[in-house]
Please model this.
Amino acid sequence: MNVIFSILIVLSTIIAMECLSWFIHKFLFHGPLWFMHQSHHKKSHSFLEWNDLFALLFAALSLYLMYVDRKYFGYRFFIGLGITLYGLIYFIIHDWFVHRRFKTFKSNNSYLKAVRKAHKIHHKNQGKEQGKAFGLLFVNRKLLKN
Ligand SMILES: [Zn+2]
Ligand SMILES: [Zn+2]
Model:
């Protein structure tokens, strides 16, 4: 498969995953799946949360997609790769940087600080209803300025 085409599939998958996770977060996590997601909105003392199960689901899906196309690197392989990369980016920014699961990642980058600010706005509300800022990577320009 054409290299440029493969890269485009990976990049569009990453963008699509951000849109999909916005949708899932807003309409499923803060909807019928709240019983699992609420662990992420309460202060917890354990390292793992019920919410982490979602990451496992996506990891399984991406591994499956890469596995079925492993011999000839078809489009499913690159969709799987895009989901994996999105998962990694999500983990590094959301879990490592914003929620400080490991206290080792600090940054003064204005984009990263804006992402953190937006996500803190989401977490200010500990309940299911009236949430704000469900996405992660696309941040409001206003937050970038200061
Ligand atoms: Zn939430
Ligand atoms: Zn969070």
User: Anything to note?
Assistant: The chain has a mean pLDDT of 90. The chain has one domain: 3-106.
